[in-house]
Amino acid sequence: MIPEPALIGAIAETVRVYGPRRVPLDVVLSAAAKVDHSAAVSVHWRRRVLTAITFLAAEGVIDLPKTRTDRRADPPLPAYVTRRGAPSGQAEKPAPIVWHADLGWAALADERGEWSTAERSCLALVNSWLPRRRGVVVPIRERSLEITGDDKALENWLFGPLFRPGRLTLDLLECEQCWPPVNRRILGDSDTWLLVENYTTYVSLSRRAAELGFDGQIIWGSGNQVRTRLRALAACGERPLECWYFGDVDAGGFRIARTAWQCVRDLGFEELRPAKGLYSLAIEYGQRRPSGRTLRMSAATAAWVQEWLDESLGDVCLAVARSGERVVQENVGVEVLAATALSDWFNDR
């Protein structure tokens, strides 16, 4: 697996600024997740982190324990990493970069020490690529793969500090945004969004919403692909005044919900709130069934669910998710929805 600059930079920066030299694995994972919020749902997440850690060890940035490993999931990861100290009397300095003329703004900020390790790593890769421009515009993921070795890296930076006015642009990188189509039902102009994890429930909710006079949008979140749908809408200049979410009640469903919540925050939208009434309907009418999956909920995700849903509803939903069972949102189907009003969807029941 190819080391990913964004993950390497985020982990390296955290190791550098962390107080003790020994950095626990949970801190490393949290640092990596901040630059790639797909961590909650990525099948190969631990392998990608392991690749980044191994790269940093090979580069002499960190040391790995010989025996202490975390085996809660595959592949095993070191239980901690240890920052290598600089020789006595020497400050750790990043390698100098001869900046391309088109990155003069990056050079000035670099002189002032304004870039994080992750940002500087990304800019260094762009700097190395710029002389190889060929005047051919390609989709952003193709360009990202060429520049960074990671097809999603540039998308992760696109709505962040590196692409602020006067900095990186798609024109400079000779690429264009390329988002999948967003399935949605626009029922009015109130700028209220309801994101729905699964397609079947999206259809049923859309039809009932139209009958009830809902004047916002019902949007299919496309499961694990919810970030691409939200970014596609943001790229078109759309912003909700209210943003709600409804998904499955299980470990995977809440990981997706948390991914959507974090993406909404990163995009600067209004806070993503749970459609508590719909979640309550799922619990009330749904049957708990074995999930048939090996996904486990992390302590961080469980704490987030408790806060997001509030105490009583959070307790019930967490009991389902932690048991290895699930209540799918399709339990809130046509017949259940027929007896509801819009107020039943969003408010506590």
Automatic annotation (TrEMBL):
<dbReference type="Pfam" id="PF09983">
    <property type="entry name" value="JetD_C"/>
</dbReference>
<dbReference type="InterPro" id="IPR024534">
    <property type="entry name" value="JetD_C"/>
</dbReference>
<feature type="domain" description="Wadjet protein JetD C-terminal">
    <location>
        <begin position="191"/>
        <end position="259"/>
    </location>
</feature>
<feature type="region of interest" description="Disordered">
    <location>
        <begin position="73"/>
        <end position="92"/>
    </location>
</feature>
<dbReference type="GO" id="GO:0005694">
    <property type="term" value="C:chromosome"/>
</dbReference>
<dbReference type="InterPro" id="IPR036078">
    <property type="entry name" value="Spo11/TopoVI_A_sf"/>
</dbReference>
<protein>
    <recommendedName>
        <fullName>Wadjet protein JetD C-terminal domain-containing protein</fullName>
    </recommendedName>
</protein>
<dbReference type="GO" id="GO:0003677">
    <property type="term" value="F:DNA binding"/>
</dbReference>
